[in-house]
């Protein structure tokens, strides 16, 4: 059941799975992504393993507070602060924090700025959040070409849901070079579009927000036990990004998912991912 929570002077839309008496896992989504990209069955499987799963719509996604397109009234530092504020709203001292892509960058910052709030850290399909980390491979050529072409593409009218869904599905396809499940992704995107009153802020604002006050840290400053999950076919953050994270964070463990792209763990990988997460958060 969805619940609107007052957080940092705004409202964030949340949904939970499982018993509040179980250890909590907070799921932090990627750029421009509502909580719908954390699929129901994935959340339910974690809950069945004895975890209290919390997912939420970022600012400017889903049903959370939004701003005019191109004019986000917040910074990246505000989105970092939303994470401990959400824990406060649920009455939680700390949680296991599981972020993907941009959400995993936010999670790294939370682990440094609010270490007492992070029981463990799970970083999926992401890159170091801090400056000055050497040895990171560049974006894949095909995805770079896609971004270049997309910059010249006109976004469909937000009232044309079918055209908008089709565009967003094709966007997702560019991030998943192997085993792209179009029907499954279309269902996810359709739900996200249906739940979002106006998709224009979602499509624009995370891309143009400023970082805000910088987080001065290194990977070695992350004290939380960390599991790094990375797909071997991620074109945005090629596998070297996950390897650098696992080497730089003390005692981090790296779980490679064969053939997986830049995406939340797909169902065919759940038999590996879910036990690994349950073990890590035990």
TrEMBL record:
Q: What is this protein called?
A: AB hydrolase-1 domain-containing protein
Q: Outline the extent of the AB hydrolase-1 domain.
A: 23-263
Q: Which Pfam families match?
A: Abhydrolase_1 (PF00561)
Superkingdom as given in the UniProt entry: Bacteria
Gene3D superfamilies in alphabetical order: alpha/beta hydrolase
User: What does the organism's lineage look like at the top?
Assistant: Bacteria, Bacillati, Actinomycetota, Actinomycetes, Propionibacteriales
């Amino acid at each position: 059941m969805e619940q609107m929570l007052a957080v940092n002077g705004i409202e964030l839309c949340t949904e939970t799975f499982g018993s509040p008496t179980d250890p909590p896992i907070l799921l932090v989504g990627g750029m421009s992504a509502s909580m719908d990209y954390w699929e129901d069955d994935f959340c339910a499987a974690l809950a069945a393993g004895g975890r209290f799963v919390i997912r939420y719509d970022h600012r400017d996604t889903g049903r959370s507070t939004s701003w005019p397109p191109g004019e986000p009234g917040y910074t990246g530092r505000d989105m970092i602060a939303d994470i401990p504020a959400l824990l406060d709203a649920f009455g939680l001292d700390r949680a296991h924090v599981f972020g993907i892509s941009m959400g995993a960058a936010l999670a790294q910052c939370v682990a440094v700025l609010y270490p007492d709030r992070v029981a463990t850290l799970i970083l999926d399909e992401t890159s170091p959040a801090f400056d000055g980390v050497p040895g990171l491979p560049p974006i894949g050529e095909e995805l770079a070409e896609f971004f270049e072409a997309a910059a010249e593409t006109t976004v469909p009218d937000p009232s044309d849901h079918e055209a908008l869904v089709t565009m967003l599905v094709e966007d997702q396809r560019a991030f998943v070079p192997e085993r792209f499940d179009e029907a499954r992704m279309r269902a996810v995107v359709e739900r996200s579009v249906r739940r979002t009153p106006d998709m224009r802020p979602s499509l624009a604002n995370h891309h143009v927000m400023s970082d805000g006050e910088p987080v001065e840290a290194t990977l070695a400053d992350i004290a939380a036990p960390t599991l790094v999950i990375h797909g071997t076919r991620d074109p945005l953050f090629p596998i070297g990004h996950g390897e650098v994270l696992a080497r730089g964070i003390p005692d981090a463990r790296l779980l490679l998912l064969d053939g997986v792209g830049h995406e939340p763990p797909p169902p065919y990988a759940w038999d590996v991912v879910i036990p690994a997460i349950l073990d890590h958060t035990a």
